[in-house]
Amino acid sequence: MPAEKKVVQASNLCKIYEIGDVKVEAFRDVSFSVEKGEFTAIGGPSGCGKTTLLNIVGGIDRPTSGKIIVFGEDLSVKDEDFLASFRCHKIGFVFQSYNLVSTLTVAENVAFPMEWARKSEDHIEKWLEELLTTVGLQHRAEHFPSQLSGGEQQRVAFARALANDPPLLLVDEPTGNLDAKTSQKIVQILEKLKSEGKTIIVATHDEQILRLADQKLRLEDGKLVS
Predict the structure, then answer these.
(1) What is the pLDDT of residues 42-60, one digit of tens each?
(2) What pLDDT score was predicted for residue 4?
(3) Nearest of 63, 64, 120, 134 to residue 92 by alpha carbon
(4) What residue numbers bound the domain in which 35 lies?
(5) Is the pLDDT of residue 180 over 90?
(6) Taking phi first (over 0 means left), then psi (-120 to 50 degrees means alpha), and beta for anything else, what does residue 40 get?
(7) In terms of CB atoms within 10 Å, which of 50, 85, 99, 225 comes out highest?
(8) β-strand pairing of 91-94 with 73-74
(9) Mean confidence (pLDDT) of the chain
(10) Rounded to an integer, what distance in angstroms lies between the CA atom of residue 40 and that of residue 210?
């Protein structure tokens, strides 16, 4: 596979947390790659390291050892200023806990990454409307997160993650806290993004999402088993 088609190249990743004198191994010797336009699902039991792995791919966390190369950049050796800019322009995150800013409206939450990237007011206004339409929440633009259901907050999180049209989307258990009907709306958003050629990595237990995957990885007992 040509190197330019590889969005993510993970080689022998190991992550160990030190809690006092105790060392806790999240995973070891994890290697995989993700192609441009590929939908990758990471499965496995709760606590197996899926979220930690997503955080390392996104430059939020660093591996204890091994290499993580994303868009040709070795993130394990970059400083925080580089990583902050890299995440803003290259990676969209959808966190399991949504991580919306409670004091900002839906529109303000979604616009924030564009403002940080210094996009023009005209661009922000036009793209904001398109994003909220995509997730079906244009009627909620002036509401605050506390006024939304869990499913609506998750859809706002998707819109915010897509604000700067990142070439890589990382999604952590997007239907984990939702009922079946609401989960279906999230699956439809992922289907749409896949059809548009977005490179996506999702940590999930959801069989509907797993069925969308071009590549399925599974973490068990600290190792990649598939």
Answers:
(1) 998 888 889 999 999 999 9
(2) 61
(3) 134
(4) 3-220
(5) no
(6) beta
(7) 50
(8) unpaired
(9) 92
(10) 9
